[in-house]
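Table S2 (text version). Query chain:
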Amino acid sequence: MEENLYLIYFAGILALGITAQWLAWRLHLPSILLLLAFGFLAGLLPQSPDEIIGRQVLFPIVSLSVAVILFEGGMSLRFNELREVGPALGGLVTVGALVVWGLASLAAHYVVGFSPAIATVVGAIVVVTGPTVVGPLLSHIRPARKIGSLAKWEGIVIDPIGAVLAVLVFEFIMKSGEGATWVSPLWSIGMTVLVGVVLGGVTAYLMVFSLKSYWVPDFLHNAFILAVLLTVFAVSNYIQSESGLLTVTVLGLLMANQKQIPVRHIFEFKENLRVLLISCLFIVLAARVPVDNLVQVGWQGLLFVAFLIVVVRPASVFLSTIGSSLNWREKTFLCFMAPRGIVAAAVGSIFSFELAHNAETLGLIEIGGTSEGSLVVPVVFLVIVGTVTFYGLTASPAARWLGLSSPSPQGVLIAGADRWIRDLAVLIKNAGFHVVLVDTNFRNITAARMQGLSAQCASILSDYVSEELNLGGIGRLLAATPNDEVNSLACMEFTHLFGRKEVYQLSPWDSGSGKRQSVSDHLRGRVIFGHGLDFYKIARRVTAGAQFKKTTITDEFTYHDFQQTHGESATLLFVVAENRLRIVTADDSFVPKAGQTIIALIDSRPEPPRKPANGAAEENTQDANPADESPAKSAELE
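Corresponding structure-token output:
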């Protein structure tokens, strides 16, 4: 029976974690808030995770999980982003980190009441932010490319720096009774950097060489990378304490920026694994924190969190970015991007146990009848909850107020810039939405720019578009090239950025051909405008005189009236309602309502024949061969 209870406990932790992630997605809340809430509820169970899992097993599992998370974070970084953010990033992770450490240590001492030694440890722990919370926030906010890249880099790079700093301070405190000096910490910093960079670099080279030489079969790629990652993390920590975090970050960074082998499948696997690990880790770590200890911290803990938000973060940002190219809006936005995550929780949990275990040796004081070493974890978790709540609720409104993001990106990235696409893009732009065209034909791009459109001459499948093109305000892809295979590949490429819901493509020319169709259904984006309405059918209709028209639906002129006026051939393409752009899909049964504006493709209707005076019908003299006519005019825009 006891074994079954253990099974239920472990399965329950996973179920709670995934439920919290789903609820956070549905409610548009930071997932870490619900994970922590579920974790605190799990802490009310009779047995704590330490008793069920065991502290000697739990902490290594946490450390290995953090290694996977930081490796995945490192794989999201690109060296080309450093051209814009390099100087500012250097200031944030050096000067900014020291400012946070110093001010947070003072606050921990004078506000919370920690002794100077423990206060410096707490100050070092809260230096970290973390990709587990910064990444999802940036995905939700979608800020301008420059400031988004800077926030992403800081959130990942600062984690190993803050963790190593906390370890060095902790070791210095533990050896303070042995006449410790600052020579030992400085030596440890040098060794940590040396081991992390060298071991990470060598491992990256060997991994790339092995995969490039096809020594590892495809089905073992992800397992092989995971095994190497965890092994090199453990070896690095064995050589130099806590250098493993830097090693795996360097490893992920180098793997992401090499061009010899594709790593998208590795990144996607680690991304899925990260979600699973975070879902379980936050619940388990939060369950270790007694609610009584959180209450015991009291108003001093809340004041400490407020001091970090109101004073420490702005001071670190503005002092560390003096002389950088950032403007005041970008600096202000960075002040709203310092939530703490899993690294702070993991490091705080490990150090709190060590401090409590060595309380007598270190001569720790008591705060409210509890050893200050035991209160490190409640304070750190209070910081996590407070910062995630504040930044999670305010970062997005702040970005919109500062003009660095749109509330819900409604812009469209269009693959293709042929004549009819340009005419349609002008209508979308005039409706108030950002449009970016990408095409390999320079003539099409030149024509698009002459029409006032933002256009880039590049392949939609190139690294330039996915990594360097500024996609601020863009929330969906519309693949509209003449090549159905390119359209499908573009949708697959941008699914990780926009999600499957927001990648669209024109209907393939052989839609409905069953198993012999050119592109399988599971490789496509959402088909737009109608099944069978491919690129060439639209182009032929426009050449024959069809027009893209924008019409406002009212109570007097309903959508039914619109259909009766323009006939069944009128094709609904887009619907604009409350500053939102809806792309009509082939399976969409949506009926526009009064107050909404529609964009439709309307065929030209021949004028009814006029009857001459003798009553006979007038003969239609139109040439039956349109090829002999002059080129058709561009689609008329209304």
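Notes on Table S2: The domain at 411-602 is CATH 3.40.50.720 (Rossmann fold). Residues 611-638 have pLDDT under 50 and may be disordered.
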